[in-house]
Amino acid sequence: MAVTSFEVDQHTAEAISELRGLFGVKTNAAVIRRALALAQVISREAAADHTITVSGRAEPVRIVLNG
Question: The organism sits in which domain of life (predicted)?
Answer without folding.
Answer: Bacteria
